[in-house]
Specification:
single chain, alpha+beta, eight-stranded antiparallel beta sheet, two-stranded antiparallel ribbon
Amino acid sequence: MEEKKGFSKKLNAFFAGKGFYIVLLLCAVLVGTSFWLVGRGSRADVEGDPAKEADITASAQESAPPQGSVPVMNIDEDEHLPLGTGVLPAAEGEELPEAQAPAVHEELPGAPAAVSEGEPQFIRPVDGALLRGYSAEVLSYDRTMADWRVHRGWDIACAAGEPVLAVSGGTVTAVYEDDLLGTVVEIDHGNDVVSVYANLDVSPAVGVGQTVRCGDTVGTAGATALAESGEEAHLHFAMRRGGNSVDPGEYVPEV
């Protein structure tokens, strides 16, 4: 018992003196050693084996495409092409159709033909009001004859002696006196189109075979048409195409 008490006193005296600091220092050394060992193991995990790193780097370089090359997309036959290619894969042995030119739309029958460059343009022969219009199928009342009949032309009001103009360029093909329409001048404009100027003064300004331009004077308005003498002073104007009368409104601006 006395020996145990003596050892306890010595141990207490040791910790009371420098022994406490010695134990504390040893504990610090142990803790530092533990941290150092843990850190070394973590670093080894991060850095890895140098030999393995060299193998990985070499494999990556072999699999990388050459510098400047374009990567190629491999597409299985059953897969769709990427969007935006505009091409569908052809079946085995099937040829792709050739590109076709866009279809040309034909003009519908009866549609008005466009005026081509170089075709003659038409003007009004005089600037008066329309007294009587074109009526080749429906009968209209004739004040001079006091009956109902067709009227294959326009009666355009104008004063006697007023200049009458060629509605388009052409060649004078006829100058004559008609029993019903009086003094008449006809001009061929090409394309089988003819303009007719009736009820003119007895002395037209043009002769057969003469070439006229659009707007040239062909004569002056008169009162020679006996069949229309019951109307006020006017020019009887008509047009023919292919030998048949047509509404002047198909060529000349409306009056």
